[in-house]
């Protein structure tokens, strides 16, 4: 289980790209909390939840 909370904070673009690549290759369970839409689009997931306005929605 890999838990990441805002992992792109304080990273430059090359580091973010490396992180995205590593996460995309990761085959375990990932709990990722982020506001970074680019990262969400770059990482393949099987389930995604969004928390907004006090509600949880599965996408």
How would you explain this protein's 3D organization?
The protein has a single domain, classed as P-loop containing nucleotide triphosphate hydrolases (Rossmann fold, 3-Layer(aba) Sandwich), CATH 3.40.50. The chain is 32% helix and 27% strand. The protein contains two helices and four strands, in the order βαβαββ. It has helices at residues 13-25, 37-42, and strands at residues 2-5, 30-33, 49-52, 55-58. The strands form two sheets. Strands 1-2 form a two-stranded parallel ribbon. β3 (49-52) and β4 form a beta hairpin. The mean pLDDT is 93.
Tags for this entry?
Rossmann fold; 59 residues; 2 helices; globular; two-stranded antiparallel ribbon; 4 strands; 32% helix; alpha+beta
β-strand percent reads: 25-35%
Decide which structural class fits the backbone.
alpha+beta
Q: Averaged pLDDT, please?
A: 93
How far is the first residue's CA from the last residue's CA?
A: 21 Å
Uncertain spans: none
Write the layout of secondary structure elements.
Layout: E1 2-5, H1 13-25, E2 30-33, H2 37-42, E3 49-52, E4 55-58
Parallel strand pairs: 1-2
Antiparallel strand pairs: 3-4
What's the gist of this structure?
By secondary structure, this protein is α+β, with helices and mostly antiparallel strands. The chain has one domain: 3-Layer(aba) Sandwich (Rossmann fold).
């Amino acid at each position: 289980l890999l838990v990441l909370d805002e992992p792109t904070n304080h990273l430059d673009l090359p580091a973010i790209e490396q992180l995205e690549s590593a996460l995309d290759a990761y085959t375990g369970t990932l709990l990722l909390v982020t506001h970074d839409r680019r990262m969400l689009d770059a990482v393949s997931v099987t389930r995604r939840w969004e928390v907004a306005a006090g509600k949880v929605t599965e996408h």
